[in-house]
Design goal:
Layout (H helix, E strand, L loop, with lengths): L3 E2 H4 L5 E11 L4 E5 L1 E2 L13 E3 L2 E9 L2 E6 L8 E6 L1 H25 L3 E6 L4 E5 L8 H13 L5 E5 L1 H5 L13 E6 L3 E4 L14 E9 L2 E8 H22 L6 H13 L1
Length: 268
């Protein structure tokens, strides 16, 4: 039986009630399906949600034939009503990263025609592979363009389309799609086929920071971070730079020049 996917109805929903439809013991725990769930299953480069069902820990979630399977640490009674609570801070951080990735990939596709052909959301940052070479000197402009859209607090719209409506839609995808497809639109920035969860407005992304650029196969691999994770990263960088500035007796924005002077002095 297909699970009602509450995470598509409200991506900010963190607590819900539902009915247990099945509970099967496996080598890794108990696989539980519900009539409805707010737990997002792993897919589209985004990890599955974790949390609890009636206090029982949910380690991970994945989709199987339309049903969302919750891997639990203990059994739940079939037919029982359960209260689910997802780890919302983690979900929100992932939504910030995923929505920011859409904006960056959308800007790059519009400017260069390149596609996002690889996407991985790690615990600290996101890596994206593009199928063309984006000049490294263009990165500050790309970053500025995305952040400008974030601060405009644009609405993010999601809906499903199929048939002629899908065929007539100029959505971004690296391959043709058929059937009913979920589309995510950020006005002026991106229209993309995606099954992930996203914030409701771009302002919730907060900030996007590009961290690295490297040649990868026939294109480039870029690393980025958004929102609270961007703040954490920049705070760590500031702390490190503050220690360097104290060591060199230099102002925080002059540590690079101070390090170069010291290197030159050591060479002479």
């Amino acid at each position: 039986m297909e699970t009602r996917k509450l995470y598509y109805e409200d991506s900010h929903l963190s607590r819900f009630t539902s009915e247990v439809l099945s509970c099967t013991q496996t080598a890794d725990g108990w696989e539980v399906t519900l009539a409805a769930t707010a737990f997002y299953p792993e897919g589209g480069g985004q990890a599955g949600d974790s949390g609890t069902l009636n206090g029982v820990r949910v380690r991970s979630t994945r989709e199987r034939a339309g049903a969302v399977v919750h891997l639990c640490e203990a059994p739940l009674e079939v037919g029982a009503a359960v209260t689910g609570v997802i780890d919302y801070d983690l979900r929100f951080a992932r939504m910030q990263q995923h929505s920011g990735e859409h904006m960056l990939s959308g800007v790059i596709h519009r400017r260069y025609g390149f596609h996002n052909v690889g996407f991985h959301m790690g615990a600290a940052s996101v890596t994206i592979d593009f199928d063309g070479v984006i000049p490294q000197e263009d990165l500050p402009g790309l970053e500025a363009a995305v952040n400008d859209g974030i601060w405009q607090d644009l609405p993010i719209r999601t809906w499903c389309a199929g048939g002629d409506a899908l065929a007539d839609s100029p959505y971004r995808s690296k391959r043709p799609l058929e059937g009913l497809v979920r589309l995510v639109e950020i006005p002026g920035y991106d229209l993309c086929a995606c099954c992930g969860t996203h914030v409701k407005r771009t302002g919730e992304i907060g900030l996007l920071k590009l961290l690295s650029w490297a040649r990868f196969h026939q294109g480039v691999r870029m690393e980025m971070v958004c929102g609270g994770r961007a703040l954490t990263y920049l705070s760590q960088i500031y702390h490190q730079n503050r220690m360097v500035s104290q060591t060199f007796s230099a102002k925080p924005l002059e540590t690079g020049a101070a390090a170069q002077r010291m290197a030159q002095e050591l060479e002479t």
